[in-house]
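Can't attach files on this board, so I'm pasting raw text. These are the components:
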Amino acid sequence: MKQTVIEINDLNFAVSGKQILQRLSFSAFAGQKLFIVGPNGAGKTTLLRCLCRIIDDYDGTVRIKDRDLKSYSQKKLAKILTYVPQSLPADIQFTVRQFVLMARFPHLSPFSVISPQDEKIAADAMEMTQSMCFADRVMATLSGGERQRVSVAAAVAQQAEIFLLDEPVTYLDYKHQRDIHSLLMKINKSFGTTIICVTHDLNSAVLNADSIMAMKDGEIVCMGSPGEIMNESVLEEIYSKKFCFVQHPVTNQKIIVPDSAE
Amino acid sequence: MKKFALISIILFAAIVIAVSPFIGSAKIPLSAIKDFNLATTDGQIFYSLRLPRVFTAFLAGAALSCCGVALQAMFRNPLATPFTLGISSGAAFGAAVYVLFAAAMAIPFGSVIFSFIGSLVAVLLVYGFTRIKKGFSVGTMLLAGVAVNFFFSSLILFLQYISDFTQSFRVIRWLMGSIDVTGFQTPVIFLVFTVIGIVIVATQNLNLNLMSISDEIAIARGVDVPKSRKIIFFATSVMVSVVVAYCGPIGFIGLMAPHICRLLVGPEHKILTFASVIFGGAFLTFCDTISRTLIAPAEIPVGVITALLGGPFFVWLLLKDSSGRNL
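---
Top answer:
Structure tokens for the assembled complex are below.
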């Protein structure tokens, strides 16, 4: 039996009368690769923002590693989970190395100096994400793909056990999408990191995840294995459109093909 | 390069502090330093006028610059200063109320207490506005600050309007900003408040680094952003209130000193905060020296000098900003 790291019970969240999350209950175990899919406005991002306490006035209970989320200090929480946004601001004036080193924050006290061990952890994270080659460049000069790699590198250097990722590949081309995805799989494999990833790309979700959660209108519509999601009626219910399926030539996984606009 | 810049800033400060006590309407020989008993006029001028004034100017500049560097990072906005956020005007209003209505009661440190209350009210208003609305953004906060600034500026104008001519003139003269101190009592009060404020801001250096990127990243890395904001607002109030109470709302130091330092030493707050404190102090001392020598024996209010130097810089900054280089 694998250890449950996230346990959500009857999570509700509303903004100015509009219900964004409704009666959400699910759990995730250590080392799980859970991808969250669903149409725009389904509440996927809001869910992640609740989990890392960017939003903290939700109703219901969220337990992280058997402890109520609201009882954590932000710093203690950051040792356990981290959040990788869709993209970093484009005008960061720190160097890549500085940015990655700053992810050691939860392990430092206000006046402590960066130790050689912190430097090593940051260097290893940059090595792993292949961002060492531009370690001394200013973040603002990086391309979108490079910046996203650094974003993941920082999350690695933070040494969190749970990664919450919000559409990490949305602005990237095919190669960089694959790079980020393989990087996440590698991190999952090497450190047993739990990956919770919101995405709009159903195919990469079913090819990489071991469970998929589909959301619509703030509710969970379906939670199951990739095979269970890749079902005509399930997908039609989620996205209110018909899909065309094919078999992936290598993995035999059922995937969807894009429609022509005609 | 950055080391060189940091050393240059420290050197600039050292030179300004060493030279400026000897410059003024009366030239003072070096030998005045030896006159500890204040037996000569030179010694008296040096020890009871020039030295306290240089210290006060340095500490005031350091405090304002420290406020600016913290607020700019926290708001991720190059225009955030105690001024634009209404903290200075809140403090100025508090001090003006004291000068016009309560000075007769002679409360010890009355002007500091009143201006501290004023700045706290301003901060609470800015913070309160944004607490009412869920999920407040730094943009809303900044606008709330601008509104608070106008509100208190109007109240000060109103106070001037209803007070008599002499009182009104005193308030106007004080609003222009001036570092006119005698003896070491003021510099000591400044030292206490400034050190408290700077130390508090320094505990937030790592938080400021992360908050200067985005609140999301700061939270993801474990910064308690709401708490950090409160701490910074409090430290700013402490520093601004003492400066405003004694020297008036001196503008532009809090805006320009951090920007110059960011260009010179980079965005890392462990270095940047230190550099801003030193440079801000040195720069205000420099401006004050100009203000009391330019048309000596008369004095130009130091606020006029900082704004005259700061105005063109401000425009230059805006032009530079649109050319893509972000501060």
